[in-house]
Amino acid sequence: MTRPTLPPDATALSVDATATPALAGMMGKCPRCGQGDLFRRGLMLRDRCRVCDLDFTFIDTGDGPAVFAILILGFLVLGMALIAEFKFGASVWFHVVAWGLLTPMLAILILRVLKGLLIGLQYRNKAEQGQLAKK
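Request: output the structure for the sequence above.
Response:
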């Protein structure tokens, strides 16, 4: 199975010159033009940008965003739970309801930002799958 080649240089179709690919990705926008939406319905990637027609098949973030999100989310939620428990003496039901609702919402938000960031960095650095050199 061959991997698609990366898109041409970003400067050829740059619509928003102030947006870097990483910043545009974090905002959920196309890394090339900074205007078209990167995601549809939460974390699902679009097939292509509606503004500059960039094909998103080159995108492969893997498990990177999930790993970072788990570490960040664990730190935030555990810290807030410990503060709620020891500073305010929160009940068990508070912990179940608060963290049961807050954790998935924060997870989606953090995953969306991190996935967009990694997509923007992948585009900017023209990252590809490693290949062995032929002798």
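Residues 12-124 form one domain.
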